């Protein structure tokens, strides 16, 4: 039975069913198919794929001495999937004589169903080991593809936390890379906490291992940054770190990822897709935690500057206030009063002088008036010997007829007075 | 003592600005004795407010320095 016949639809097959030695087209519980029929049908379906070119990684190879058939386990480099490949020793020797586990191969094969065991394998008639040049060309192509998709975009990079609560570390067990990251990070920040997941960092299981570890660490909320570290190695050893599935897994991480692969000169695609690229595992330690000593020094410096600045400010203000307070109007308030006291004294003096002047003038006037008064008095006439005679009633006697005999008279002289009586 | 309370509430900058204007007015002259005295008293008060602010600031700086770093 050919693959073509199996491909026909059921109604057509029913018409020809009588011609075949196998019985029914449909199996039922009353009329089940024997194993050989099922096996035959499965074999036919599998054969329909025909010849294909397959790209894969050799996970295992067994060349049994003396046997002409060689078995390979061909693995997908990005996923945990594999197929068995059988081939002739001659095919292997002509196409890939040096083939080892871990190598990338392209092979021309046809799937075959081994009916005796019910197993599936690829029968290869040509095997080519993928050379360095071609690997590089493929990487370059993948790099362009990922770049075009935006996996390397600077804008998509996440910032690392200043001080991560916990650091996820994906690295080989007991590797130099692990030690470098742990030692250097602890030297810088002794309290740093790690959650380390040890994985295969080369070989066929590297990519699935690392992707699995990424998922575990990304799901851990206490992990605030993830470091993928591996020491240096040949281009082929570092291939897992340029794997497309790994790159996509890193891109999908919510936690920032630091790549620390190999040496300064190594640049696997992981370096481009990671949020931070560290040149070495030691460099990664510097990127993920701050240096305690340096931070303490910076804080000390900042405090000193802060204090200088604030003291300077207070001192400057003190100077301004001192200047204001030292201005004479504030510093010598008594001036305010003294000035006015001087004015008052001056006025008082003026008032005094003014009064004196007036008093003097009044005294002079009095003297003059007195002199005039004196000039008018009869005293001067009396001095010359004249006398004034007055009657008892005070009347000044100017004629003899004004008096009678016996009248008393007062005679006023220049010096004193005397009394007299009229006798005729 | 409403005035004193009012003074305590003045910020340093307010007190200093007012002090400067008091000094200017006193220096310009032309005020009555009573006004001058009142201005001078105000000036003294304001200078006191400024000084208290500055002393307080220094005390706070010194206190902060004495405190052991956390």
Supply database-style keywords.
heterodimer; A: 424 residues; alpha/beta; 5-stranded parallel sheet; 14 helices; 13 strands; 44% helix; rod-shaped; B: 70 residues; mainly alpha; 0% strand
If you had to describe this structure to a student in words, what would you say it looks like?
The complex is a heterodimer of chains A (424) and B (70). Chain A has 424 residues and is an alpha/beta fold. Chain A has 14 helices and 13 strands. In chain A, the strands form three sheets. Chain A has a five-stranded mixed beta barrel with strand order 1-2-3-5-4. In chain A, strands 7-6-8-9-10 form a five-stranded parallel beta sheet, sandwiched between helices. In chain A, α6 (176-188) runs parallel beside α10 (281-288) and α7 packs parallel to α8. The model of chain A is unreliable at 1-22 (pLDDT under 50). Chain B has 70 residues and is mostly helical. Helices cover 84% and strands 0% of the residues of chain B. In chain B, α2 runs antiparallel to α3. The radius of gyration of chain B is 16 Å and the shape is rod-shaped. The mean pLDDT of chain B is 83. Chains A and B meet through α11 and α13 of A and α2 and α3 of B.
């Amino acid at each position: 039975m050919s693959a073509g016949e199996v491909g026909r639809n059921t109604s057509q097959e029913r018409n020809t069913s009588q011609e075949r030695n196998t019985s029914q087209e449909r199996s039922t519980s009353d009329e089940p198919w024997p194993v050989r029929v099922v096996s035959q049908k499965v074999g036919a379906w599998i054969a329909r794929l025909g010849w294909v070119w397959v790209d894969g990684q050799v996970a295992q190879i067994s060349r049994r001495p003396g046997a002409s058939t060689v078995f390979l386990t061909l693995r997908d480099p990005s996923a945990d999937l594999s197929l068995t490949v059988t081939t002739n020793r001659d095919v292997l020797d002509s196409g890939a004589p040096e083939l080892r586990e871990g190598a990338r191969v392209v092979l021309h094969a046809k799937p075959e169903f081994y009916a005796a065991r019910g197993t599936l394998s690829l029968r290869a008639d040509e095997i080519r080991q993928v050379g360095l040049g071609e690997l590089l060309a493929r990487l370059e192509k993948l790099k362009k593809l990922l770049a075009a998709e935006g996996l390397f975009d600077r804008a998509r990079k996440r910032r690392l936390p200043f001080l991560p609560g916990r650091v996820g570390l994906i690295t080989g067990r007991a590797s130099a890379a692990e030690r470098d990251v742990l030692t250097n990070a602890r030297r810088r920040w002794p309290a740093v906490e790690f959650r380390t997941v040890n994985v295969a960092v080369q070989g066929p299981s590297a990519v699935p291992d690392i992707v699995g570890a990424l998922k575990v660490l990304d799901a851990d909320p206490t992990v605030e940054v993830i470091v993928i570290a591996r020491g240096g190695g040949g281009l082929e050893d570092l291939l897992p770190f340029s794997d497309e599935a790994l790159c996509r897994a890193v891109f999908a991480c919510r936690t920032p990822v630091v790549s620390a692969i190999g040496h300064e000169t190594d640049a696997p695609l992981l370096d481009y897709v990671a949020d931070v690229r560290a040149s070495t595992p030691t460099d990664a330690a510097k990127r993920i935690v701050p240096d305690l000593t340096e931070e303490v020094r910076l804080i000390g410096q900042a405090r000193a500057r802060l204090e200088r600045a604030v003291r300077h400010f207070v001192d400057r203000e003190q100077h301004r206030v001192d200047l204001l307070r030292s201005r004479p109007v504030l510093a010598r308030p008594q001036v305010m009063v003294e000035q006015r006291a001087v004015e008052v004294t001056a006025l008082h003096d003026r008032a005094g002088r003014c009064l004196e002047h007036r008093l003097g003038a009044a005294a002079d006037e009095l003297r003059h008036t007195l002199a005039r008064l004196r000039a008018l008095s009869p005293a001067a006439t009396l001095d010359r010997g004249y006398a004034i005679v007055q009657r008892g009633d005070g009347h000044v006697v100017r004629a003899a007829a004004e008096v009678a005999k016996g009248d008393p008279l007062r005679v006023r002289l220049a010096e004193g007075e005397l009394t007299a009586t009229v006798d005729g | 003592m409403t005035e004193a309370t009012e003074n305590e509430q003045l910020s340093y900058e307010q007190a200093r600005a007012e002090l400067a204007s008091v000094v200017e007015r006193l220096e310009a002259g032309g005020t009555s004795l009573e006004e001058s005295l009142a201005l001078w008293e105000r000036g003294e008060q304001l200078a006191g407010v400024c000084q208290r602010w500055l002393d307080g600031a220094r005390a706070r700086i010194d206190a902060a320095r004495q405190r052991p770093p956390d």
